[in-house]
Write a structure and sequence with these properties.
With 161 residues, the chain is an alpha+beta fold. The chain is built from 3 helices and 7 strands, in the order ββββαβαββα. The strands form 3 sheets. Strands 4-1-5 form a 3-stranded antiparallel sheet. Strands 2-3 form a two-stranded antiparallel sheet. The protein has a two-stranded antiparallel ribbon with strand order 6-7.
Length: 161
């Protein structure tokens, strides 16, 4: 499913890259881990390419709702609420066990509020041969472990506020 971030509604994006430093997409090079990119350094085509790369997880940093021009809040916004922060904005999934990070990244990216079905968490990963991409099916045990890790981190992040 294609993503739908609107460049005109964000101040920056945080791109979490699980690939080694130097991974490239849309003319940009990413470090492993979190990369913050100002919106004025991207065009919509680059943002779409980054969002639709299964090896990258994108979190938008919305414009300050009080300074966002009202004309930007159009019908094509698809329900984004700039007054409502992202559910997992304070969670750093790179601190999770490495084998759970892709699953947690999918949960964060989709802003899942309930434990998902395993089929909702299938993702693509690089295969053993160069250029090869494999589909990874998530087991119920890994889904549960990722979900409970994420919920624990969400509770910790809420306590710190």
């Amino acid at each position: 499913m294609a993503k739908t971030l609107k460049l005109s509604l964000i101040s920056a994006v945080i791109v979490s890259c699980m690939q080694p430093t130097g991974y490239r997409r849309a003319g940009l090079s990413f470090n492993q881990g979190k990369n913050e990119i100002p919106a004025d350094g991207l065009d919509q085509e680059q943002l779409d390419a980054i969002e639709n790369d299964p090896r990258l997880s994108v979190q938008a940093i919305p414009l300050d709702a009080s300074t966002a021009p009202q004309s930007q809040l159009d019908a094509n916004n698809l329900g984004a609420n700039l007054d409502n922060p992202l559910l997992y904005a304070n969670v750093d999934y790179t601190q999770a066990p490495i084998e759970l990070q892709p699953v947690i990244a999918l949960m964060i990216d989709a802003q899942m509020e309930r434990i998902p079905a395993c089929t909702d968490l299938t993702y693509e990963a690089p295969g053993e041969n160069e250029g090869e991409v494999i589909k990874v099916k998530v087991s119920a045990a890994d889904r549960d472990a990722a979900w409970y890790w994420l919920q624990d981190e969400l509770a910790k992040a809420g306590e710190g506020e």
